[in-house]
Design goal:
Elements: E1 16-17, E2 23-31, E3 34-42, H1 57-74, H2 81-89
Antiparallel strand pairs: 1-2, 2-3
Helix pairs in contact: 1-2
Length: 90
């Protein structure tokens, strides 16, 4: 079971790695006067990360596939886990 997070102590829209639970990161998403704790990302997943000079074609394709597959949810904005996974891990 994931550890309990005190929402009042977290900064808005500032993702952090978490050490327990099933997801690798947590963020307190704030938008339109609403707050929501979102856990996202998979532990140990070999995500593409930020583009690097001389990046392999395989990693470029992997990043493109993720963005294509989750594009609809990424477009929902800060209140969706896909948005944060795209921003932090991809």
């Amino acid at each position: 079971m994931a550890t309990k997070i005190d929402k009042s102590k977290m900064k808005c829209n500032s993702p952090k790695a978490q050490r327990s639970g099933t997801k690798s990161h947590v963020v307190k998403a704030c938008a339109n006067g609403k707050e929501k704790i979102i856990r996202f990302g998979e532990y140990g997943a070999s995500t593409a990360g930020k583009p690097k000079a001389g990046e392999s074609d395989k990693m470029k394709a992997k990043r493109k596939s993720f963005k294509s597959r989750h594009g609809k949810n990424i477009a929902k904005g800060k209140m969706s886990a896909a948005y944060w996974a795209d921003k932090v891990k991809w």
